[in-house]
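Cast an eye over my tokenised protein here and flag anything odd:

===
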Amino acid sequence: MSLSSSASQALTADNRAVPPARGRLQWADLANTAGAITIGRLGIAVAFPLIVHSPRWALIAYTVAIVSDVVDGNVARWTGTQSHTGGVVDGWVDKVLHINAAWAMALHDYMPAWWLWLWFSRELVQGAMVFWLVGDFHSGRVRVQQTSLWGRITAVSLAAVFIATLTNMHALSFPLTCFTGVAGIAAAVGYFRRALDDRSRFR
């Protein structure tokens, strides 16, 4: 092995030496089956406040939405249509779904309204970052989006607390609410650090 190839491998192994792939938003990337499933979930988010008065139908709608969230990513991989745009839109559609459903649930007294601060601790930080990052996403000064470990934990915990609340499992709802708040903060800190790192790499 030559000295130059050894040096090249060393640089490749060092994440700080090799910038990650940039991600640019291309809306045409949503014109496929996976994109249609993702956008369909947005329809459930819009309709949720109209059916939330019925716990049974609210649970069915939420379950369909969660299943679609799993399916769209798999469909994208199976069909080779996964994209940075699909990942970004998928994440934000999930946020719209959960926030829209949660405030409707709070208005119908499924749980105390202050629980929303814990359910969406991650989104509160990300929301504050939106105007700062929108230009970076448009110009591609961000790496291709990937879900972090804490992001996955937060998503699973949030889904669990939604189901527990919709099914009146009060013994689980509050502990899951507290855990979701802590996990969301951990995820948000990771996203913030990644955004700062992207800015230094893609200047």
